[in-house]
Amino acid sequence: MTEMVIEMRNNKYLVIYEELAQQIQEGKYPAKSILPSENDLTEMYSTSRETIRKALNLLAQNGFIQKIRGKGSMVLDLKKLQFPISGLVSFKELAGKMGQRAETIVDEFSLIQPDAEKMKHLHIDKSEKVWKVYRIRKIEDERIILDKDFLIEKYVPGLTKEICQNSIFAYIEGELGKKISFAKKEFTVEEPTAEDRRLLDMEGFHAIVVVKNYIYFDDATLFQYTESRHRPDKFRFVDFARRMDSQVF
Predict the structure, then answer these.
(1) What is the C-alpha separation between 243 and 50, in angstroms, rounded?
(2) What is the pairing mode between strands 65-68 and 72-75?
(3) pLDDT in tens, 136-151
(4) Domains of the chain
(5) pLDDT at residue 25 tops 60
(6) Taking a C-beta distance cutoff of 8 angstroms, is the pair 218, 197 a contact?
(7) Torsions phi, psi for 59 (to 5 deg)
(8) Taking burial as the number of CB atoms within 10 A of a residue's CB, which of 22, 105, 155, 193 is the most buried?
(9) Handedness of CA 21, 176, 160, 228 (dihedral sign)
């Protein structure tokens, strides 16, 4: 068996995931409907239940479905942009999945000496240089996200304003060849600041969802701190947790 055939078999769950995600987006499986059962999908795609389960787990992680015991996989409402809390996805990847018209505006791009707050967030000292990037995210012509990114320059060399307008993650993984592995996230709801109101379309809104991201490479090196400020009406933050069997000590 060739390596190509092995790779195709190993990645079949991704093909199934993409096809089901597209069908959900196109309305073949509307919100609150139930996907075909695992057994039916196994027959439809001529594959194993393990492969189907991997595809369904990926759909759940990315906010397309919710698994309900005794019922199956229920399709979620995609009218709001859905951020998977436990996942790590770029704005460009998210907008592509949701099929909505998106634009990024780089409001500020500079290489700075970090202040005490940034040194604390990034676990660095004054000797390090940091990229400071403020990006306004537009969905359907509305300015609804302000991303305030701070990246350690020695780990992300050669960054440009054009790269920031496209995708920093794509540059790091595609051009620098580094693997982005995981992030620690903190969620709060706050009053909008004067900066939020200046840069985002916040008229009539009195709260903003703030997500603080500490982002790491696969060797556990912290390279980026991001404060992402979301207008609350356009987003739903989703996560799916499994209750573990209780243990008696």
Answers:
(1) 21
(2) antiparallel
(3) 999 878 899 999 999 9
(4) 3-75 (1.10.10.10), 81-238 (3.40.1410.10)
(5) yes
(6) no
(7) -60, -40
(8) 155
(9) positive
The pair of three-digit structure tokens given for residue 2, joined into one six-digit string: 């060739």
- What's the pTM? 0.63
DSSP 176: S
Q: Comparing C-alpha atoms, which of 224, 89, 92 is closest to residue 167? A: 92
The first and second tokens of residue 205, run together, are 């809104």
CB 84 within 8 Å of CB 62: yes
Q: How far is CA 92 from CA 100, 138, 166, 230, in A?
A: 11, 11, 8, 15
Backbone phi and psi for residue 79, each to the nearest 5 degrees, phi listed first: -65, -30
Instruction: Tell me the helices (H) and strands (E) count for the chain, helix number first.
Output: 9, 10
Give the β-pairing of 235-238 and 142-152.
Answer: unpaired
Q: Across all residues in the chain, what is the average pLDDT?
A: 85
Beta bridge partners of 67: 73
Angle, helices 3-10 vs 12-25, to 10°: value is 40
Place of tokens 């603080």: 212
Tokens linked to 162: 């054009």
